[in-house]
Amino acid sequence: METLLLEHKGPVAWVWLNRPNRLNVINETMLAELRQTLELLDGDEETKAIVVAAHGPVFSAGFDITWMAGRDAEAAFQGLASAEAVYDTIEACTRPVIAAVQGPTMGGGLLLCLVADYCLAAEGASFGAPEVKIGIFPNLKLIPRLERLVGLRAAKQLVLGGEPVDAAQALSWGLANRVVPSDRLHAEAQALAEHLAALPAVALRTGKAAFAASRGPDYAAWERASFTACWSRPEREAAMRAFLQRR
Fold it and tell me: Is the pTM here over 0.90, yes or no?
C-alpha cells in the first residue's frame, strides 16, 4: 500500500497512516486503502480488534488541500459519496476500532477519531475542524457525529471558530476517552485492544451494532432478537459459568 501500513500484534490489527512527510494528510489513495483495509480486517476471523495510529509526530493534518484545490464544484460533489462510504465502513466495522492520536488531528483526521469506538490521546494531541478557514465547512457527516459526542455548544466552537482544542479539553468534552503520556500511547492502545479482543466476540459485536440500530425505527424489536441470539451462543453459557465459578 502507498499510504498505509498494516501490522498484526496477536489478535490486534494496527492500521498505520504512513505519510509522515506530508503530515499524514488524507488523499484519494489513502481513502481507498482505508476502505479496502477495514473491509479486509472485518472479514478476518483472526482479527479481534483494530487500532488506527500514525507514523510521525502528527496523527493527520486532514484532507490534502493540494488534492482538493484543483477540483471544481462538480468534481467535489462527485467525490463526496465515495469518501463518505470510507468513514461509514470504519464506523460499521464489527470489530472495535481504537484511534491512537498523537499531535494534531484535523478535519478528515478528526473524523477518523469520531468513527472509532475509542480515542486515546497523547498529552500533546490536539483536535480541530478548521475547514471554515479555507472557505468550506466540515462534511461527510462530521458535524452530526461530533455533536453526538460533545454536544451542540462544543461542536459549534470547533466548527464555527475553526480553532483546535488540546487533549485535556477533548477529554472533558468526551471527544477522547483517556489522555496518556506520549511515550505510552501505543502500549496503552495495544492493552485496551487486547482487553476487548478477549471478550466474547458476538456479545461485543452486537453491543457495538446496537448503537447504530438504536437510531433506527424499530430498535426494540432488533434488541429483543439480537439479545436472544446472544443468549443462545455457547460462549454466553461458558462466560456465565466462569463468572459464577470465580465468585
Answer: yes
